[in-house]
Amino acid sequence: MNSHTCADSDDDPPCVAVFNDISRINHRCASIPSLPLSPQSTLHACSCSPNTIRLWRASSSAMYISACRAVPAGTELTTYYRDPFLPSSERRAALLAVYKFHCACPSCLSPASSDKRRLRLQQSRGRLADLVAWARAAPPLPDLLADTLELLALVQEEGLESQHVYGRVLRHLMCISYLMQMCAEGEEDDIGNNAEAGGYEGYKRMLRTWRLANGAEDVDVRRVELLEEEMMRVAVSRRRTGG
């Protein structure tokens, strides 16, 4: 479905897409049943808070669509036509100029508050070096976990689960939770008893699904996960030994 009209050429080929199933970014499974669409497939409806991730695979000459959050039955599938991190005024002007419609997505209907939240996400730091430094602190500082959970809430509020900032936030939460799990197993007093220690497997599963939906191969994802776990183990070991 597409709620916006635009001028199409009479020479355009027929557009057909059949959706029997669609993956969900928070679905508890190891594989993603993404759906291949032909290059002639119709455009999704526009939203600056899209509910799908689109991935072009040259090997099959097809566009693969995966849901980036829970999509209720009958809900229209959406994608972004312009960078969702542009100011809303720029996005709306570009959409009007190119596609001849006024975007009425939640972000564009509340531009001031939405732009502020998106700027906060855009300016957020996501370096692994910061995470390692946090893991090695004795005791670890509490602000990184709180800040990362705040970023996750902002991503979800803005409907930006399709964007790389979501993957970065999930990676940090996965590593933080893994660290807390290690501390709990070692009976450390500083952060080991934090309730977030039980979230490691959940964040790991969500991040794996997101990475696969964005084109990563399963073998590569699992290799990266092992490297991330090893990074946290080394950081904790150095903290315990004072190295």
Which residues sit in consecutive blocks of at least 5 with pLDDT less than 50? 1-9, 12-33, 36-42
Order of helices and strands: EEEEEHHHHHHHH
Q: Strand count, sense and closure of the main sheet?
A: 3 strands, antiparallel
Average pLDDT level: 79
Helix content class: 40-55%
Number of helices: 8
Shape: globular
Number of strands: 5
Class from secondary-structure proportions: mainly alpha
Compute the separation of the termini in Å: 58 Å
Percent strand = 5-15%
Write a brief caption for the model:
This is SET domain-containing protein. With 243 residues, the protein is mainly alpha-helical.
Task: Explain what the structure shows.
- This is SET domain-containing protein.
- InterPro entries: SET_dom_sf (IPR046341), SET_domain_protein (IPR053185).
- It comes from Pleurotus eryngii.
- There is one protein chain.
- With 243 residues, this protein is mostly helical.
- The chain has a domain at 111-241.
- It is built from eight helices and five strands; from the N terminus they run E-E-E-E-E-H-H-H-H-H-H-H-H.
- It has helices at residues 88-99, 106-109, 111-123, 128-136, 143-158, 164-185, 200-213, 218-241; strands at residues 35-37, 45-46, 52-57, 62-67, 78-79.
- A three-stranded antiparallel β-sheet has the order 1-4-3, with no helix packed on it. The chain has a two-stranded parallel ribbon with strand order 2-5.
- Helix 5 packs antiparallel against helix 6.
- It is globular.
- The N and C termini lie far apart (58 Å).
- Residues 1-9, 12-33 and 36-42 have low confidence and may be disordered.
